[in-house]
Design a protein that fits this description.
Elements: H1 9-58, E1 106-107, E2 122-124, E3 135-137, E4 139-142, E5 177-181, E6 186-187, E7 222-227, E8 232-236
Parallel strand pairs: 1-2, 4-6
Antiparallel strand pairs: 2-3, 4-5, 5-7, 7-8
């Protein structure tokens, strides 16, 4: 009669080591698959926004929102309240949220508990232009597409009316961002805006760095952007600097390969990602 024999300690350790090795190989692949799912859902939201904008443009002579609001300076900051009420940024409207940003909503300055980050939706509360419940989301319009009215050339933060597109019916529409994942509901990027040194930093640490509102690592080196030709695609974080954000935006600026950027110029967190 043969005695029943169990596993020895060494055999168990070998099995555990093999399982650990397999997991270490599979986990990155699983993470990538999950991330692709998030990207697809996120891009689907932007495609829905393309349809919403198309309908608005059709009813407004092909012009984007003015961004003007009662009691404001007329600089185009409050386009969001000009949308139909059901489309405005609300916590119960899933179209406003990337799957990776479903969480506690904090205001743009990190209040009340400094929890605002690239993974939490932005929120603005207790503001005259916001609804009683506030507004929140994880996408923002390219402010340069707005049809900001007025006669003077200069706007706040060094912007000019002449640089605004005002309509999507222009040349290079496929390279002009219309809406992007962002840390606020609007952004006016410039080619000289430097990425934040810390990948988890939020735009409120530098209110003038509008590119940093979109250049954030939610999707492992990529972000989702819809264009003025009503397409939507994933864009490399460094690629953001090559898009035609406004009429005089230098797409060969200091943060592009054509503009002479070197690997050491980039903050450490963004350095490994693809160059453009």
């Amino acid at each position: 009669m043969h005695k029943k024999r169990g596993f020895t300690l060494i055999e168990l350790l070998v099995v555990i080591a093999i399982i650990a090795l397999l997991l270490s190989i599979l986990m990155p692949a699983m993470r990538k698959v999950k991330e692709q799912g998030n990207m697809i859902k996120c891009m689907g939201n932007l495609k829905q926004w393309n349809l919403i904008y198309a309908m608005y443009l059709q009813n407004n002579d092909g012009k984007f929102f003015s961004g003007n609001a009662t009691g404001q300076s007329g600089d185009g900051f409050w386009w969001i309240i000009q949308m139909a009420e059901k489309e405005q940024s609300r916590i119960d409207n899933p179209l406003w949220f990337c799957p990776k940003t479903k969480g506690t909503f904090r205001d743009e300055n990190g209040n009340p508990n400094n929890k605002f980050s690239i993974y939490t939706a932005w929120g603005i509360f207790n503001h005259a232009q916001a609804s009683p419940d506030g507004i929140a989301g994880s996408y923002g319009i390219n402010g340069w597409v707005l049809d900001v009215p007025g006669t003077g050339a200069a706007l706040s933060e060094g912007r000019t009316r002449a640089d605004h597109w005002k309509t999507p019916n222009v040349a290079q529409a496929a390279q002009i961002p219309m809406m992007a994942e962002a840390l606020r509901f609007d952004l006016w990027p410039q080619p000289t805006n430097r990425p934040f040194e810390n990948e988890t930093a939020v735009w409120s640490t530098d209110n003038t760095n509008h590119m940093a509102r979109a250049c954030m690592n939610r999707h492992i080196g990529y972000t989702n952007v819809s264009m003025c030709d009503f397409s939507a695609r994933k864009v490399g974080l460094k690629e953001l600097y090559t898009l035609k954000w406004h009429r005089s935006f230098n797409t060969r600026g200091p943060w592009t390969v054509a503009g002479g950027v070197s690997s050491s110029d980039w903050p450490a967190w963004i350095r490994p990602f693809s160059d453009y």
